[in-house]
């Protein structure tokens, strides 16, 4: 359950996510990849005698059902075909989001969940319409930030693809990237990132290299192209 409270940035993020869920509830396409949220008012909760402390300024709340994190299963316990299928399912939901005209703009491994046998996306505080080609304040997570974001460029499909590449790389390798500061993350993504996979997984190497290209022009153009490469190149 998410509420409008706390720091002003959090409140703005909540209002932004709330507006996105309101759009999802009117879109069959978007509702297929998001959790079935319910927007309720403080008065509604009071009428149900819900025992929770609620700020007086709170007007609405977004209630989401529990869902299982999608990438918690260890890749090393799966055969190659199952790893491929696991990644394809994540790509499916990203393709729907992009084809509906949106970029997530803050992808993390934790933002993929499984609910009733379906992969879903969560946490849309930073979601952007693809028509919103304007610079925003730096509100991405450094671990997943594409190099161009450290130079103040706008978020695009390619920044989503880069973040997804980091998610895939960490899941396949079983290792988490590390840096001690924002500056260190910038050096890592802009200069030092090296893709190193165990021999068993070298079939995924070219896919990751193109998802994680330092220059966005060298990355895949869209999710469909990634899916094609994943199916055709991984054997």
Automatic annotation (TrEMBL):
InterPro entries: Kinase-like_dom_sf (IPR011009), Prot_kinase_dom (IPR000719). One of its GO terms (molecular function) is ATP binding. It holds the Pfam family Pkinase. PROSITE patterns: PROTEIN_KINASE_DOM. The keyword Transferase applies. GO terms for cellular component: cytoplasm. Gene3D superfamilies: Transferase(Phosphotransferase) domain 1. Residues 1-231 form the Protein kinase domain. Keywords: Kinase, Transferase. The keyword Zinc-finger does not apply. This is Protein kinase. It comes from Acinetobacter tibetensis.
């Amino acid at each position: 359950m998410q509420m409008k409270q706390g720091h002003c940035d959090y409140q703005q993020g909540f209002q932004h996510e709330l507006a996105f869920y309101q759009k999802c509830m009117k879109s069959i396409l978007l509702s297929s990849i998001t959790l079935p949220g319910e927007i309720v008012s403080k008065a509604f909760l009071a009428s149900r005698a819900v025992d929770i402390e609620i700020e007086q300024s709170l007007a609405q709340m977004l209630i989401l059902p529990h869902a299982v994190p999608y990438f918690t299963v260890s890749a090393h316990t799966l055969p190659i075909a199952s790893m491929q299928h696991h990644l394809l399912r994540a790509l499916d939901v990203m393709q729907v989001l992009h084809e509906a005209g949106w970029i997530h703009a803050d992808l993390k491994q934790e933002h993929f969940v499984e609910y009733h046998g379906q992969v879903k996306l969560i946490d849309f505080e930073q979601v952007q319409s693809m028509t919103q080609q304007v610079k925003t304040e730096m509100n991405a997570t450094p671990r997943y930030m594409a190099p161009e974001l450290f130079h103040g460029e706008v978020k695009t499909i390619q920044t989503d693809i880069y973040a997804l590449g980091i998610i895939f790389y960490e899941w396949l390798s079983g290792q988490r990237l590390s840096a001690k500061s924002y500056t260190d993350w910038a050096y890592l993504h802009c200069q030092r990132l090296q893709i190193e996979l165990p021999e068993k997984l070298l079939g995924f190497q070219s896919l990751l290299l193109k998802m994680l290209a330092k220059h966005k022009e060298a990355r895949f153009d869209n999710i469909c192209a990634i899916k094609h490469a994943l199916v055709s190149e991984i054997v």
